Amino acid sequence: MEKTKVAIIGLGTVGSGVARLLLDFGDRTARHAGRTLWLEKVVVRDLKRARDCDLPEGVLTDQLADVIDDPEIKVVAQLIGGLEPARTIMLQLLESGKDVVTANKALVAVHGPEIFDRARELGRSVAFEASVAGGIPIIANIGQCLSANQIQTLHGILNGTSNFILSKMHEDGAAYDEVVAEAQRLGYAEADPAMDVDGTDAAQKLAILAHLGFGARVDWDDIPRTGIDTLDLADVRYAQKMGYRIKLLAVAQLVDEGIELHVSPTLVKAGRPLAEVGGPFNAIRVEADAVGQLLFYGPGAGQMPTASAVVADMIDTAVGRTAITFRTLELWSNRQARVGPADYAHARGRFYLRATVDDSPGVLAQITKALGEQEISIASVLQHEPESEGQPVQLVIMTHETTAGAMM
Ligand code: HSE
Questions:
Q1: pTM listed for this prediction
Q2: What number does the ligand 1 atom closest to the CA of 188 have?
């Protein structure tokens, strides 16, 4: 059987999973690729570090040159996180004639234009299915399977760590700080866990999906975002009382002005599919004109789900499928973006407000007056009696539909 030599850069959680799939299930990959994907080299920084997988003799190296200088290695899974040296290595691999597969969403979101342009100039390809929503094949679905559609909206739970934390707060009444530590222990979190809970990770994934689905070229850092680090257990309890669940939603919506994008903790009616996505799982609801509504659900993080997406990309690259879609999709090319970002201030929705206020005459009147001046109509107000005389009280207000601008 024909053999395509492949390599992995980085043997962390995902890299070890990819090595395991290639080595232990080589017959499976060969069946799908019509050739053996032969793991020739795995490059690591520190040869002495204990590893989670057994590699054949001579495969592990700390020399990137062992890959770059070997013209027989055709496909490389570049699985190191962060921006540098990931970006430099990516470019070096492309320059040396390799087709590259990556799971690094920050790299694609930040340096996508540079990397994709260079790959095109060199006649190479880049595949990045694992960069968004781990094991869910959302890149292939949006980039290829829905190509007869105009996508209208995307609503995604794209950060598994945040979803795990919110689920624990809802189900166990656990406090935010306790659950953050647990998510880190379980290995869902990014190396810098702040990126999970402040909305950065979800915004980077949303920027990639917005580019694929709408042809929008947006800087992820321009996407308005609020993370779950602004929430308190009290918010979760009030949401539950009102029949909602709080989810960190990444939203892209086509409007007359362009594409509206934001990431924010959102109250989703209990019982709706996105409200029921628990633990570290991800889900994306897509609305498109021809197909209607679709829901993608599955593990958005973790070793084997992410490795599953990486190896599928390696197979597609080895057989030449990636090169075709890479050429036809022209991602992050210098072509004019099909659609520009819309002003978030014009985004319409209902809003949840919680204020800790003095329990004294006229306080509620002042708040309702301030909202009224912005033409914000109140749908419901919730206030419990103070625990003791003179203590402040929590006031929870749900608005009718208004604009984000009015709420700012
Ligand atoms: N830290 C990410 C998450 C995993 O929690 O979803 C990979 O993107």
A1: 0.95
A2: 5
